[in-house]
Amino acid sequence: MNLLTSKYRITYEAFSKLSGSISKAFDTKELVSVTSKNLKYLIDSRLLRISILMNDDSYSFTFSSNGGSNIESNKLYDFETRLLDEKVPIINSDIPQELDQYIDLNALTNPLHWGWLFERANIKICVSILSDDKKLFTKTDINILHLLVDSFTTKFQQLHLSNLLLEKNKNLENALKLIAKKNKEIEKILEYQQDIISNKTKEVKLKNSELLEISKINAHDLREPLTRILGLIEISQFYKPEQLNDAIFVHLKTSAMDLDLVLKQVVKVSTSSINAPLKT
């Protein structure tokens, strides 16, 4: 087994181990951590940056050879924007100054900047590598880079979609709780209104019953003086005109006054009952 074959065997064994660790990552932080720890066994470089574009948002992950890592959202560099527009791979010694925040560019010997645009279904991936004479990345490493990017991106998509789903479920749960709360408030309002309607109905029925009783009592009271008046009128034909004043008219006047008094009482009692406020 020659040196190159041995290198590939070790590299692919390291990738197999990393792939297993990536698949077990339960969040983005762990995904970045396991990638950062195992990256040195796969790719010989000073810096690796992966920027994933999904649904008009970008998520960038930068790994340096000293074991450091960084996560950024919606922060693409100029060379990444050009990659998206031109889709032309990069390999030159013109090192983007934005990368200086991750690694000391002045400490590099004959640095090279590599860049590619990978497209996967509905996402785009900008991948860039910074290498030099001590950390020498070559074209033979591109295949393992593809495998690493695919594995990393697939897992990040899964975690990202899981987080979105969890957030949507939480929002839905909160919305359902709010709807349930509002429904209870509406039920209380309806119950209160039903109680008011029920009480008002009882009061109206009670007043109707009172008025009915008043009408029965008053009908009896009215009937008595009215009967006397009718009786006096009936027998007045048997009296001579000169006898009517003493025998009929005096009693007729008394009965009329009794009738008037009863009518006034009926009006007073009925008006008082009708105008009495309903209980709430």
Strand and helix layout:
Layout: H1 3-24, H2 28-38, E1 47-54, E2 57-64, E3 69-73, H3 78-86, E4 90-92, E5 112-120, E6 123-131, H4 142-235, H5 241-275
Antiparallel strand pairs: 1-2, 1-6, 2-3, 4-5, 5-6
Helix pairs in contact: 1-2, 1-4, 4-5
- SSE-based structural type: alpha+beta
> Any guess at the CATH architecture of the largest domain?
2-Layer Sandwich
| CA radius of gyration | 50 Å
Number of helices: 5
Walkthrough of the structure:
The chain is α+β, with helices and mostly antiparallel strands and 280 residues long. It has two domains: 155 residues, Beta-Lactamase, CATH 3.30.450.40; 84 residues. 61% of the residues lie in helices and 15% in strands. The chain contains five helices and six strands. A six-stranded antiparallel sheet has the order 3-2-1-6-5-4, with helices on both faces. A hairpin with a 2-residue loop joins strand 1 and strand 2. Helix 1 runs antiparallel to helix 2 and helix 4 runs antiparallel to helix 5. The chain is rod-shaped. The two termini are 99 Å apart. The model has no long low-confidence stretch (mean pLDDT 85).
Main attributes of the structure:
Beta-Lactamase, rod-shaped, 6 strands, 15% strand, alpha+beta, 280 residues
Quick recap:
The chain is of the alpha+beta class.
